[in-house]
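Posting this for the archive.
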Amino acid sequence: MTDKFVKTDAEWKALLTPDQYRVARRGGTEPAFQNAYHAEKEAGTYQCVCCGADLFSSKDKFDSGTGWPSFSRPVAEGVVTTAQDHAHGMLRVEVLCARCDAHLGHVFDDGPRPTRQRYCMNSTALNLIPQKK
């Protein structure tokens, strides 16, 4: 992993849209089924909206039925980190960009084989870079 990508709160606000800032920098969530990538089928790489780090591949994307883009694994070890999330009276595992600490979503143990992981991400925290044809 490369060096940490650090900005002040004011710099993040200037760089991101209000919704991107709310989700990626403040741990918000977007509505299910009302986001850009939940049904996206285009091949490519999903990058962090804040720092541009490659995070997930369309090859590992699957329809979880939850209304959010879901992946069975990150593109490489160490590109995401996790933390316990006790918000809303639940215990969940939050997924963060390892490079800039952006909130991406949560990971659950109910995904497909072989990983059994479901990285349930917020579209707002991602940018899809289409695969070159």
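The first helix runs from residue 9 to 15. The CA atoms of residues 15 and 50 lie 8 Å apart.
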